[in-house]
Amino acid sequence: MLGGTERLLWLLLLSLLLPPPSAWGQGGQARPREGTEEAGSARAWLAFQGLRERLRAAGALSRHYWARFSCRVWPQDCGEDEEASARSPAWSLALLGQQYLDILSTWSCSFWDCCDRGDCRIINNFTGLEADLRVRLHGQHLARELVLTAVRGYLEMPRPDKALALSFHGWSGTGKNFVARMLAENLYQDGLRSNCVKMFISTLDFPHLKNVDLYEEKLTDQIRKMQEHCRQTLFILDEAEKLHPGLLEALRPHLERQAPSNQRAESQRTIFLFLR
Ligand SMILES: *[C@@H]1O[C@H](CO)[C@@H](O)[C@H](O)[C@H]1NC(C)=O
């Protein structure tokens, strides 16, 4: 158990001694160099990938883990009982460790694209979106142009005063979901898995009529939370024709023009996709 902790500690320290990530290129996307260095670089790259995974795990360090960690490093300040130390003010003795963690996270963020608000992975690749719509979407010329123009126009607006709502309907089968996915993938590095993208399916997320009040609260709450976290959010509402009017009502404030009194340092962009 503690052996594992020690190993992790070692990895953390080792990682601080490694050459800067620029040696591998930017954003963790670089390939091994060519020529004689290739094999060595490839090995280094694999090692680097493994390290990255461990750092990711370390990024999720819990308070409890920190207490244990500090017990290993500063045993003199540590109680007998690990559980107790996790709860006790011994937490403060992890401050020095916290500094290391900060250094570590600053360093790791230089190539993970992470940031405080978790929305650094917004890519808004309109070239990619245009290409996807052109190549992968068949027989929807009008939709293709409209989607691209609307989304691009909205996202490039310096200070939009309301959300953009797009409603896709009348298309058979997967066409609508397909476009929704293309949008997510070209606007966010992580596509539909992004923390700034949320999909609701009416029959799944809001199945019972009697709970509409609850759903309304849940929906409003989730939108608010995501907007706090991301400056650009995408909400996909599938089976929108089955959405209760009460829930549409909950969305109304976003779809209406916001008074400019609501000044924010950074403008908020929200896209609602209704698939019906
Ligand atoms: C945008 O998407 C295209 C096509 O998928 C891709 O080739 C290009 O590298 C992307 N650009 C960026 C900046 O991600």
UniProtKB/TrEMBL annotation:
Q: Which GO terms describe its molecular function?
A: ATP binding; ATP hydrolysis activity
A GO cellular component annotation here is: nuclear envelope
UniProt KW Signal keyword: yes
Q: Report the InterPro entries cross-referenced here.
A: P-loop_NTPase, Torsin
Signal peptide segment: 1-25
Quote the Pfam families the UniProt record gives.
Torsin
Keywords, sorted A to Z: Signal
Q: What protein family does this chain belong to?
A: Belongs to the ClpA/ClpB family. Torsin subfamily.
**Name used for this protein in its record:** TOR3A
Write the lineage as a comma-separated list: Eukaryota, Metazoa, Chordata, Craniata, Vertebrata
